[in-house]
Amino acid sequence: ADMAKKRIILQAKQKEIDHVLEAALEELRNLDTREYFDTILKMVAKYAQDKDGVIMFSEKDLGRLPKGFEEKIAGRLKAGSLSISKESAKIDGGFILVYGDIEENCSFEALINASREDLQDKISQILFK
After folding, report:
1. What does 35-57 look like in DSSP terms, one character per residue?
2. How far apart are CA 66 and CA 48, in angstroms?
């Protein structure tokens, strides 16, 4: 009975952590245009490689790119360049970097999933201390 109780509590905690991660993802997707693309620029500075490549956005983001955004991207790069693809990526926020045959998925969902264990630990510490 004690093990069943612990398992139920653990499942409830995991469900709450998953809810927090999904809410964070939704909040990122719904940032106003200025904040959203400011976030994208910070991500580009962090994830772009020092070589020439292409950056792909979702269809929604391609339709709302701020004027001069490619130049703003160039200003965040240490080396290399990124041109904005006219083709859309099948993602819901964030971007995909393409360097030849190599693609780096920097969509919000992929980045959260890649950091899921660390994020779960941090959320758990905040919610259940």
Report:
1. HHHHHHHHHHHHH--SS-EEEE-
2. 20
